[in-house]
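Lab notebook, page 48
Experiment: co-folding of the full assembly
Goal: obtain a model of how the components sit together before planning crosslinking
Operator: M.T.
Materials (sequences as entered):
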Amino acid sequence: MRFPDANKSEAAPHIAGATREALIAAATTVFAERGFQDATIREICQLAGANVAAVNYHFGGKEDLYSEVVVAVKHTGAPPVHLQMGAEVPAAVRLEAHIRWLLGRLVCMGPVDPLGQIMGREMIQPTPALDRLIEEFFRPQSVWLEVVVRELIGPGLGDEVYARGVMSVISQVVFYKHCRPVLERMGPGYFPTAATFEAQVRHIVDFSLAGFHGMRLAAAANGPKPGAEGSDCPSRNH
Amino acid sequence: MRFPDANKSEAAPHIAGATREALIAAATTVFAERGFQDATIREICQLAGANVAAVNYHFGGKEDLYSEVVVAVKHTGAPPVHLQMGAEVPAAVRLEAHIRWLLGRLVCMGPVDPLGQIMGREMIQPTPALDRLIEEFFRPQSVWLEVVVRELIGPGLGDEVYARGVMSVISQVVFYKHCRPVLERMGPGYFPTAATFEAQVRHIVDFSLAGFHGMRLAAAANGPKPGAEGSDCPSRNH
DNA sequence: AGTTGTTTGAAACTTCTGTTTGACGAGTAT
DNA sequence: ATACTCGTCAAACAGAAGTTTCAAACAACT
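Observation: model returned without errors.
Model output:
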């Protein structure tokens, strides 16, 4: 009835889970664009070509649908295959691979990257879904990167030093996700484009490698810190 | 009537703009905590001890109140007095002053800093208020910092190089604002405390200075770029 | 004291939105 | 064929929230 010109089978009910999938896809878009609160079931269902009752029927409610979206969105985009790389690959190469993957994921996936957008909102206004996101998505990357950073800076320093090195790298990348609206309004050239992407990656890699070098020198100047290993806490003085 | 034990003069209407100020104060808190959409006029008015009609009477509506809050929130917190520093102060000192000011503002102003919180939301979900925020708040800092960075890297490079240097610095600071919920969930030591604040500032300063050094070396290796000046656009290849 | 403009308060209004309901159609097993 | 289940749909329901209304209170001025 919604499309009088279409035959009735367009609303074929028994294409296993068709509307359910359509709802998840539509919800991913709408939640990413508007956020949980601003997103309306009616808009999601309209985009999915489904009835407003479909969300409650298939998921139980708006919040449950959101949880499904957050879980599903992890598997969108390029997978972090470079995390398989180990010590057989030079640390600088691993660093560059991670930066390229992360930056590409955050800035070059079309107008809005659902994962990045939803993550951004989760950070400003966390929901219970954030905890799963951290354990299944952020922490693996963080520990992998810390190994790389530890190799690049050199051994014998405190855990908090390596943690700061990791954050200095990540921050330069996620910056372009979190501050994109500002950068785009600041003028052309602030936000990376396809043409400037590689130069941007190079800059972050070089800047970080130089930063690690400086950290090693500073650590040497201040004297090596004993007992650096053996603590799970990256910071010892608080 | 809301406070039966207080005398009636507590609702004294003609303390010039009393309710208006109370509304702005309350709205700042509520908007920062909940965001524009989640914040309700009723909660703001209850916190301000005012009637729900007060917002529409004094401001015209919810959105206008939000605009007032965004404008007013710029003047909260420590003012950026260091922006007065010029070439008579070593560039490294100016850099450190800016980093210390910004980081202190973003991470050490109690549980929630209204400015940072609202800014964070504006970046994820911009409203018309963001444009004013950029022109009156971000851009002055950006141009000031670019002068410092230009001095630290050295002359003769492209505008986009200096812009990237600026962003590498800023990103390391705002990271702690935008990713605070994640860092706090990652474990102790990731998010700066009063005890680790100075060490954090030192790290960002040293890391950045070393990064600038690397940028200068890389530029020298690739050869100096002519015609770097004279363009307002920090990026030339897009 | 009376008038006037301003501010406040309680209630109602309107719209939006998540959810529920009951009916209908299609496939499937008995 | 009948009954049952599943999915869909239009409509209605219920609550929340922004806004409006109108009367009352107050201060300042005449």
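Interpretation: The first helix of chain A runs from residue 18 to 38.
Next step: discuss with group before ordering constructs.
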